[in-house]
Design brief:
Number of strands: 28
Strand content: over 45%
Shape: globular
Oligomer: single chain
Number of helices: 5
């Protein structure tokens, strides 16, 4: 049997085993042809770093579109001149994606550079099997412009919220958190088809801090996950929810309600606190709005441990702390170093995850939840369900881009 055919048989075998282990049958997306191992979405859009570095520590990112069932590449897109792709979000059909891009007026993204940064959104639409399998087109959404002068520190703080834009499950609407002066936050919802501003909720409450949006309850509501620093030793994470229907404008504090919050004190060491604060951007709220998933990692001179958890999104912190350990993986690497783990995707009910970590190629995994698996050096991305881990497949040399944005979406 040819090697590629043998690999396909192995992948399908893994998929059949995982699907049997998933409660309620399957969590496949609406289009069965886009299902990968365990019923997770098959196709992804990811950011990949281009060769050149433009005037500073922030390199430019292009786009790779791939099939995580076969490891094949459907398409690649280079960034336009002076532009880097910063984050990506997906609709529920696994064929429609929105990518956020930032353009520098000077072509430089160096710290403290005086330049105008402009954020724009693009759509990536997949047609697997067609002569042209993916198309990249600008969305008609009004660009977001920011003047960054030499007094601003390195990074993307003022544009950071917009990295975490959220495409609705239907692919028809785009939710954009946006920082507004001096300390407020706006959450805007645009029509993907026309670019029209449908909703504009704002608040001057500085408690929201950095924020990311998630569509829940069949696109009928929005959830906002925010983290703020209250002092050098105290921070808080909160989740607010509100209905997406209603007036075009409104006070975010008035229309939304806090459904869950947790304060983290410096030096505290609970599993939940480590999960929330260890890897920013790695917390995923399920589409039904009932759970959130995240990951923890620890490192030793012999390697480390990576764990993935799902917690109920309950008003009671006591209830929330009783989370579920989805998988525990033991990494073996005598070089030591820092392991970074995060959740990249969660099923609508939070029962199945796609997770990743730096330095970790899977070895045999125990089927008993909580039993550590043994892994070797590398990067690993795969499906997590009932304590089992099934690696997904990517092109040779594929590595997730690190940075403030979300590097991959299914």
């Amino acid at each position: 049997m040819p090697l590629t055919a043998a690999a396909a048989v192995v992948v399908l075998a893994i998929a059949s085993v995982l699907i049997k282990d998933i409660p309620n049958g399957s969590v496949a997306p609406p289009n069965p042809s886009t299902a990968g191992p365990g019923g997770v979405p098959r196709y992804y859009v990811a950011l990949n770093q281009v060769a050149e570095n433009t005037g500073g520590v922030i390199a430019r990112n292009g786009i790779v579109v791939g099939d995580s069932l076969t490891g094949g590449t459907l398409a690649t897109f280079a960034p336009p001149a002076g532009t880097t792709f910063a984050s990506v979000t997906a609709a529920a059909d696994d064929l429609t994606f929105a990518v956020f891009a930032v353009t520098s007026s000077t072509g430089s993204f160096a710290p403290k550079a005086r330049t105008t940064l402009t954020g724009r959104w693009y759509q990536v639409r997949l047609s697997p099997g067609a002569a042209r399998q993916a198309r990249l087109t600008p969305l008609p959404v009004k660009p977001l412009t920011l003047l960054r002068d030499s007094t601003e520190e390195a990074g993307w703080a003022a544009l950071g919220d917009s990295f975490a834009t959220a495409l609705s499950g239907s692919g028809r609407e785009l939710a954009v958190p946006e920082r507004v002066a001096p300390h407020g936050l706006a959450v805007k919802v645009f029509s993907v088809a026309t670019g029209r501003l449908l909703h504009d909720w704002t608040t001057s409450d500085p408690a929201l801090g950095q924020a990311s949006a998630t569509w829940i309850d069949g696109d009928r509501s929005l959830a906002l996950l925010s983290t703020r620093s209250m002092s050098a030793a105290l921070s808080e994470t909160a989740v607010r929810e509100w209905p997406a229907a209603g007036p075009a404008r409104g006070d975010l504090a008035a229309v939304g309600k806090v459904v869950w919050s947790l304060r983290n004190t410096s030096g505290s060491d609970t599993t939940l606190q480590n999960c929330l604060y260890q890897e920013p951007g790695g917390v995923h709220i399920s589409a039904d709005g009932k759970t959130f998933s995240c990951a923890t990692s620890t490192s030793t001179v012999y390697g480390g441990d990576v764990r993935f958890y799902t917690f109920p999104l309950a008003a009671s912190t006591t209830v929330t702390t009783k989370g579920r350990l989805d998988a525990s993986l033991r990494l073996r690497d005598k070089r030591g170093g820092l392991y970074l783990a995060q959740v990249l995707w969660a099923s609508p009910s939070g029962g199945t995850l796609i997770g990743s970590w730096i330095r970790g190629v899977l070895a045999p995994v125990s089927s008993r939840p909580g039993s550590p698996a043994v892994a070797a050096p590398g990067q690993s991305i795969g499906v997590i369900s009932h304590g089992r881990f099934a690696p997904l497949h990517f092109p040779a040399g594929f590595t997730l881009t690190e940075g403030s944005g979300i590097p991959i979406a299914w």
